[in-house]
Amino acid sequence: MGESPRGSRAGSRDRASQNHSTSVEQRPRRLGSLISQALSFDDADAYAAGEVGFLARALVQATMPHSDPKTNEFVRHNGHYTLSILAPKGVGLPYGRYPRLVLAYLNTEAVKRKTRHIELDHHFSHFCAALGIPPTTGPRGSLPQLREQMQRLFASTFQCVFHDEEKGRHAGDGFLIAEKRALWWDPRRETGDASWGSHVVLSERFFREATETPVPLDLRVLRALRSPFEIDIYVWLTWRFFRLRKPVSIPWDSLQLQFGCGYKNPRHFKRRFLKYLKSVISYYPEVRLTNGDKGLVLKPSPTHVAPRDSQMKL
To answer: Counting Cβ atoms within 10 Å, is residue 105 exposed (0-12), middle (13-18) or buried (19+)?
Structure first.
């Protein structure tokens, strides 16, 4: 008899050490909780569990800040592709884990419902639960922090530019995430509930980007990863492996330009990248890669969530 999907996934975890160099093998830190969470996902794949999410490709190739950059402009590079984010003075740029989870939620709803009008619920606590964020109040609670990050996200302008000087090619596109938003929650209250339903109207440009060629993801993994750096690595790997047909080496300096995080010392960036890569591999053991002195070598591997026919242009 054929091996069950659960057995197949578990087997791939047993073979994980064969796919990764010793420098990216698991360490004891967080290992127990990560493995137990990852194994619990084996009961059903993302489609069967109703946990398939999506993220716009433009926001996978380059990403938002991991921590507060204390500035109103942020730039990330990935080869010929550049993502620039500009925030109004006095508002600030979106950063960290929360805006990434919000973007995945909005993108997923747009794909599933095929509409730019996204309802966010009367209850802020319910919305937090959908994002996998425990609702807490107080000055440093999750409710006020999430609300602030959403305000930053919706106020910012995103500019995507492709520039190849050698071939004389240049193209660019700018967009807001939302053209309208109404966030009626009060984060000072215990639940943040409101009398009116909060909602967002996605901009036409972002809606097209979000629905035409979205990257499919496992929302359970997105919620389980605790660091924005881990989230960025996970979505980037599953996107890269969709297209990868032969091994490719990506220089560490290129990865630093793409993921950034404000590290001035390349060795510090590499150390942090490999640390977070270990967490991602706990949930995505099918990846085949090696840590080289000059770069990360990716080898053809299954994408984490296989796209359906309508998403085959990734």
So the answer is: buried
Q: What is the pTM of this model?
A: 0.83
DSSP 151-189: HHHHH-EEEEEEEETTTTEEEEEEEESEEEEE----TTS
Q: pLDDT by residue for the chain (314 residues), tens digit each?
A: 444 344 445 555 544 444 565 344 444 445 555 444 544 455 567 878 788 999 999 999 889 999 999 999 999 988 889 999 999 999 999 999 999 999 999 999 999 999 999 998 777 888 888 999 998 888 888 888 999 999 999 999 999 999 888 888 898 889 999 999 998 876 555 555 554 578 999 999 999 999 998 999 999 999 999 999 999 999 999 999 988 999 999 999 999 989 876 778 888 999 999 999 999 999 999 999 999 888 999 999 999 998 765 454 55
User: Cα 59 from chain centroid?
Assistant: 8
Domain that holds residue 89: 5-311
Q: Are strands 248-251 and 295-299 parallel, antiparallel or unpaired?
A: antiparallel
Terminal CA-CA length for the chain: 34
For residue 313, what are its two tokens?
Answer: 């242009």
Query: CA-to-CA distance for 174 and 263, rounded, in angstroms?
Result: 27
Contact 84, 158 (CB under 8 A): yes
| Number of domains the chain is built from | 1
Please state, in angstroms and rounded to a whole number, the distance separating the CA atoms of residues 44 and 5: 8
Determine the distance from the C-alpha atom of residue 180 to the mean position of all C-alpha atoms in its chain, rounded to a whole number.
Answer: 23
